[in-house]
Each structure stands twice: as C-alpha cells, then as structure tokens.
C-alpha cells in the first residue's frame, strides 16, 4: 500500500500523479461512454466519465481513499469519521473496511433509509443527530473525542480534492481526442476543484467549467463576489449539490474555473431522463446538471469535444423525479 | 453489405457464423458486465450480456437485421412490415432506415406512447388496430397487400432466430472462462431458440436453460406436454414475455433446452431492482427473470460460471414497477 504525505496546500501536478497511483487498489478506472443520439441533440461530441460505475456508486470513493492514505498509521488505525447522509458516508465506510479499521458516520435521523442501509452494510458505526449544521458538528466532535478517529471532510480538504482530481485525469488520458471543455457539477466543490487542477496540469487545451442548479447558485455567486456565498434555501432535485463551497475548494475554483452555468430544476430532470433513456444507465440527478447546461447553451459547446463527469448512480428507485403517470 | 440466403430449416453452425458476419454493420457488439456483489448473493459467477446497450435498446435489432438481409433485393426495396408494440417494432423500423427502405408497423391503439414515438422517430409508417390477434393480423395483411412489403415475424422465423443466436455467440466468445450454464428468458422463443443453437454449436460445456414468469408459463408447459401451449391470461410485469411459442421456436427449444425455471412477479421485480441498484444500468423487467431464477435456485447454480442475457433496456421511466413510496 502506497502511503501519501499530508497536503497542506493546493496539490501540484506530481502530487496528483502519486495520488492516482496510490488510490489505484481502492477504486475502479471507470469507463467513458459516448452516445450518438445525445451528441446529435447537443451538437457536440460528449464523453461521459461514468463514476456511477465507481465503487460505492460515486466518485467520492476517490477522495476518501486519497484522504485516508494521508493519515499517519497510528492515526489511521483509530479509524475514520465523517458526517454525511450521502455518497461520502458510503465512501468513508467502504475505505475503512478496505483498510480493516473502524468507521464512524454521523447521519441525520431523517437520512434516506437506503443510504443508512448501505453505510451499515460496510460495517460502519452510525451516530444519529438532528439535521442542523450545529448539531451535526457537535455529534461529530463527540465521536472524534471518544474514538480518536480522524475526521475526513467531504470536500474542504486538499487530500480529498487530490483524490477527486483523479477522475478528470483518467477522463483526459482515456479520451482519444483533445477535449475542448470539461464540465463538472458543483456542490461543496471537491470534484470541481480537483477537475480544475487536473485540467490545468494534464490537458493541452481543455477549459474547465461548472454547472449548478439555479436553486442553489451559491458557487456562481461566490465566483462573482470573490467570497464564499451561501443559499437561503437548498431545495433542488440534485441532492448532491446542496452544500456551499469551503475555503479550500473556493480558493481553487475562484482561480481556475472560468464559468458556472445555471440550470432550472425541470432542465435537470429532462437531462437526467435523456441519460436514462438513451444511455440506459442509472445516474443521480446531480449528474444531469452538466448535460442540462450543455443543452441550454448549444452555442457555447457546438462542435466541441466535451468531457462530462457523471458523478454517481445512487438514487432511490422508489422516489424518482420523473412523472408517475 | 453481405446478403444472406433464406433459411428454411434450423440454422447450422456455418449459417450462424455468416449471419454474425453479415449483421455486424447494423448491431453493436455489446459489453459483458460482472458484479461482485450480485455474485456474492448468487453464490455464482455471473456474466451479464448487456443487450440493453444494443441499438434500439434491445437484442431484437439482431433478428431484424438477419431477417432483412435474407430478402431478395427486389423484395427488400418494397420495405419491411411487422406487427409489434414493443422492441421488435423499433428494430424493424430502425433496420429499414439503415437500408433506406420503408417500414410499415401495425400497432394497437393503446400501445405505450413512448414506443409509438420511438418507431415514428425511425421514420416508420404506423397503422393502428384494435388489440386482438385477429384484428392485428387483418391489419398486417392489408398493409402487406397494399405495399408489397415483406413481413418480418417477431420470432417464428429461422432468419430471426439466427440473428438472435449471435447474442449468445458473442457471450461465449467474449467471456474469459468456460460457461457452465447460459440462461435466457423466454417469450415467443426467438432469443431462447437462438441461444440454444449457439450453446450447442459454440460452447464446449454450457447447458442452455430458460426462465419464465410463472404467470405466463406456456413455454414450461409446452416442454412438458410436447406441443405448443398457450396462456389464458398474460398479466406479467415482464411485458416482453407475454407471447406464446411458435412452431419454429418450439422445435428448437423442445429439442435443445433442458430446463425452464418459473419465477413469481415479486421475484422479478426484486431481481430487477438488484440489477438497477448494484449495476447502475437500466434493464427491462424481462431481463430480470433469469437472475430471479438463479437467486431462487441457488443450489442449481452454486459455484458455476453463468452467462445471463440482459435482453433490453426500454422501460417507461414514468411507469416503473418499484414501490413509489
């Protein structure tokens, strides 16, 4: 097992390369799919990086692996801790199981049953809390104090960001054309920050842009104002994108991401339906946000080769956003 | 374009090989996926042949291509005709478009809107009829009389059977282990008959078995009684499997298929959910029937390498069989 040094600043090219090497035993090199009928609709050549086929069903496995491998052995053996009701919880739980160490996950009482079941299946210990930022933090602090486990932040961590960067590194390496644009969705910004670094270090040409639900447009506003903005409400079908940026992700995104496209809820659902129906793969609503942006701005992407990161496929098939007619 | 001679009897090994060669420009060589977590649940090593990624989203493209290439040029240019409200309609329409000839599809008035739209998108001319066998046949006869188009039967045609056989040929060729069993669902029997021939001609060991919804167990009863049985009602979630066998498919299946496993409706839905949730791919209920059979009879399949044909992925995402809680 390759162990990694801690990262205290924005990772450089060599640090991303060694991260990719180190996490290799813990993640899949996911396929890149294309679809002629969606290409015709978009007027562009789209390369979908399928992190829905990643272990635990989402790219978060990359960041969790990268962060866990940066802990000193005596830290690591006390276990991993985090707060999350989503894919990051599963990723931390799964990585802990791979390393044969305990995992402690703080989840809200009202977390989806399927997410709780998945985390339990990986053998993690769950602590329930009320669903407010303060209570979540208090519950996490208590868990860390009692167990000595290492907190793995869902995104605001250079180790996590370096892990997420490996997704776009593979996208760039495995695509047989030179990409003009790479587009990723943005929530807390871990994936987007990593993608921006990968684009800068490993692509001759690709511009890295982002897509965000208009209902939670904090990242777009943060880029404009130059400081981290937040959302008054966070109601969007793209449940993976409700979070605000952190200072580490913001520092990278502000510097290296040129544009954030905003899309409406119905546009997200329509794009998700298009991926399901044409590509026959299951993707989360968050995945559909970049495609929605491309279909909304055909003039921006026309004729281009565009890499799209499909972030994950963990949806509750009992609660889909399509019309149940 | 390779043209094929007509088939008036059960195709032999060489005829399947040349069929595979001839249809190559019109079909995808679909991937074979594996899933460690479903393997653990099944106690077997499963190889899923993903015809949900086939053109038009189902294996039916193979049979339509094989049948169309067997028409004499002067027949072919008058166009293709069929009756179907499902994947075969789309396959015939798409193949006609590939050959730049007309397609005439007879569909019931109450066919799903999405299926009608897909057939229209391929440029076919639709004739609506009432949803009874007699009226359907009358409408088809009228279309054929008026247009001179060639009728492509959905399954009871040796050309179609030869086309469907190419799916298992690829499964056998592209799997890096020797398969112990190949399992396919059975409706009209075109796929199963083709799979049985492919298994017999191209596998050193594989036994070909089938799976069928208990609610429409006509094929299982036909094997026992030695003649084609039919269903009094055909209510099953596996809408691709409601048809009875034809005499050509029966002749092959009766001879070469050793066993047909029956599964309950809820077992089909549970297996479909398992494929969706673990593999992150969209498959039709019919696809889940073989996996349901494997999970129901673990002792039969334990420790084996089993090839499973996933027939297609054309589901209406607005009407899924999962509980909408």
From TrEMBL, chains A, B:
Its cofactor is pyridoxal 5'-phosphate. Pfam families: PALP (PF00291). One of its GO terms (biological process) is D-serine biosynthetic process. The keyword rRNA processing does not apply. Signal peptide: none annotated. GO terms for molecular function: ATP binding; L-serine ammonia-lyase activity; magnesium ion binding; pyridoxal phosphate binding; serine racemase activity; threonine racemase activity. Keywords: Lyase, Pyridoxal phosphate. InterPro entries: TrpB-like_PALP, TrpB-like_PALP_sf. PANTHER family: SERINE / THREONINE RACEMASE FAMILY MEMBER, SERINE RACEMASE. This is Threonine dehydratase. The lineage of its organism: Bacteria, Pseudomonadati, Bacteroidota, Saprospiria, Saprospirales.
């Amino acid at each position: 097992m390759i162990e990694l040094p801690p990262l205290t600043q924005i990772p450089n090219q060599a640090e991303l390369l060694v991260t990719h090497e180190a996490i290799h035993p813990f993640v899949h090199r996911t396929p890149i799919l294309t679809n002629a009928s969606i290409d015709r609709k978009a007027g562009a050549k789209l390369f979908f990086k399928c992190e829905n086929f990643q272990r635990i069903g989402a790219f978060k496995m990359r960041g969790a692996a990268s962060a866990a491998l940066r802990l000193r052995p005596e830290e690591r053996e006390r276990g991993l801790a985090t707060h999350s009701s989503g894919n990051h919880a599963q990723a931390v739980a799964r990585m802990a199981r791979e390393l044969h160490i305990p995992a402690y996950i703080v989840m809200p009482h009202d977390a989806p049953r399927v997410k709780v079941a998945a985390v339990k299946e990986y053998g993690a210990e769950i602590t329930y809390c009320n669903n407010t930022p303060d209570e979540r933090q208090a519950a996490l602090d208590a868990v860390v104090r009692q167990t000595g486990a290492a907190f793995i932040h869902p995104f605001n961590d250079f180790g996590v960001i370096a892990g997420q960067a490996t997704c776009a590194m593979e996208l760039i390496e495995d695509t047989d054309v030179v990409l003009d644009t790479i587009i990723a969705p943005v929530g807390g910004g871990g994936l987007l920050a990593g993608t921006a670094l990968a684009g800068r270090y490993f692509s001759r040409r690709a511009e890295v842009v982002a897509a965000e639900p208009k209902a939670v447009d904090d990242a777009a506003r943060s880029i404009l104002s130059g400081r981290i903005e937040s959302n008054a409400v966070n109601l969007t079908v793209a449940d993976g994108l409700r979070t605000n940026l952190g200072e580490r992700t913001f520092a990278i995104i502000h510097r290296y991401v040129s544009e954030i496209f905003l899309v409406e809820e119905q546009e997200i659902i329509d794009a998700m339906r298009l991926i399901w129906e044409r590509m026959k793969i299951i993707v989360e609503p968050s995945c559909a946000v970049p495609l929605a942006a491309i279909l909304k701005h055909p003039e921006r992407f026309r004729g281009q080769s565009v890499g799209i990161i499909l972030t994950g496929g963990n949806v509750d098939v009992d609660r889909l956003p399509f019309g149940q007619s």
